[in-house]
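Q: what does this look like with LLGJG24Q bound?
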Amino acid sequence: MTSRAKKALENDRRPIADYGLIGNMISTALVGRDGSIDWLCLPRFDSPACFASLLGTPENGRWRIAPAAATRRSSRRYLPQTAVIETTFETEDGAFELIDFMPLAEDEERSDIVRIVRGKRGRVAVEMELVLRFNYGLVVPWVRRRDYGLSAVAGPDAVELHTQAPLEGQNMKTLSRFEVAEGESVPFTLSYHRSHRRPHFVPDRGEALKHTVSWWQEWSKRCCFDPSQEHWREAVVRSLITLKLLTFRPTGGIIAAPTTSLPETPGGERNWDYRYCWLRDSALTLYALLNAGYREEAEAWRRWLLRAIAGRPDQLRIMYGLAGERWLPEHEIPWLAGYRDSRPVRIGNGAAQQLQLDVFGEVLDTLHTAREDVLASAPDAWKLQKVLLKHLVQIWHEPDQGIWEMRGPARHFTHSKLMCWVSFDRAIKAVERFGLDGPVDRWRAERDAIHAEICAKGFDPQLGSFVQSYGSKALDASLLLFSQVGFLPDDHPRILGTVNAIERDLLQDGFVLRYRPEHTVDPYKQPEGTFLACSFWLADAYVMSKRMDKAEALFERLLSVRNDLGLLAEEYEPASGELLGNFPQAFSHVGLVNTAFNLVRAAGPARQRAARTGPDVAAQNATTTGQARPQP
Ligand SMILES: OC[C@H]1O[C@H](O[C@H]2O[C@H](CO)[C@@H](O)[C@H](O)[C@H]2O)[C@H](O)[C@@H](O)[C@@H]1O
């Protein structure tokens, strides 16, 4: 076997959970346990990757710093309450730490990655390999030596490597070999800039580290999760830091994940680009941020939402780019082999063109919650809501692609209709509670008509459960949301029956599948992993029906599948114990935060949502359920 093939295989076998996330709220990088950065898009989350070995081979770009000799042991952690990763490598000759972080950046076209090698014990030989490949692992740049290191340019992109370590070019790669002794530091900075602009000054790396650490620690302190529940608080803070890392600071948009095409089925075709902002994820994200006390972030998210959706209501999209872009065409990238041969690798997302009726409900619920929680006034929000409702009156009867964005024929998905009901319901509440103007009688008639239709066509008396789409027998985890949006009382037999049916049909080793592909119109029939956000929704449904022990047990199991850094992908495969799908995924982390608050507060996000109220955080802090018993 050639060494190239060996390397490819080595890369193929790396579990998704082996990665950690660093970032500066403009872009992020995935750092492997072995010291290799295998995914980095520059300048923004949604730009082409310059390190793409995650989806191919090391030849598609990576930046590895690791011991030159065999590693005896390695361990890693985030520096407490930060987005800075510290990996410790131990060899026969001693030990060193590798500190990885991205300093905060103001300019969305300039980002730095800092890597500091710090000797801890003995004297260790270290190897650095930098393989730069712009445009998703394809384009080899023109590299020149500089007194500060090197510069590389190709087309619109340029990077500078700043280091005092010796550098050597070999086979289109840059290599370095040096030794580090106890107490010594060898820093590297990779700085991106547009090739038509001048490179920027790279400040002192020690100072940048101090500043980055203290910024994250101050930010984390703001989390108002009960500090006495240390174990859960730590998990909540890690999820919030991850959500913050997935936020595009210049606009406030939050992406679903920083990766594309990590497979939902290893070796399969369910490989999608998640580097965009989904409206669907907005209401639950807002509850998570507000409950945790992050008002500014919630306000920035709401402002992003209002800008993104502004315009004709019939042009509402289900997802947008970081700044609200609507043109997100889907392409396949043939030169990347795919993570464990999972092809195609896709860029852009065709689901952006779909009709998914539930997004109306998500948007109207988000704006309603913002009003209930007295976020800074947004005078145009109500006008926009009325226009959206006027359009929804015309279209809620239509079939759509549903919450799971199925690419088969359109259906009357029950969850989509449920969220249409939410749209009218929240608007009526806005009139009743805030005296806003609107055709409330018309809205009441629509709301009642949808309610009656769902109860007649979306419920199967034999199963005793709501079903995925009108007239079908298939179940769907999105039906777990019925109680938390307030459609029927928590203890209604139809709500309890639906939870029972999902427990019977969709559980795999205690985790929840979205649906069974063989029972649906989904054209991709390969089995996928269990869906983590849905598993959190089951825990929430247990809270709503006051089964706190079950809720707590499921929550603990979900915490146990996070990787060693506390990160979750979109899915989890119980048989192999692997995380699957794009990573880390915002929807999963939003689920974690909301379930944690549901467990510790008398009225957490699920009950707030059912009551159509916002989280009054001060009052919430004063009341905890006392029902949950977190482990120390
Ligand atoms: O696997 C099917 C679909 O998966 C993606 O969508 C999923 O992620 C979204 C973002 O978190 C979430 O809102 C949605 O409900 C999930 O199904 C993908 O982007 C779609 O193109 C794909 O059809």
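DSSP finds 16 helices and 28 strands in the chain. The chain has two domains: 3-220, 222-622.
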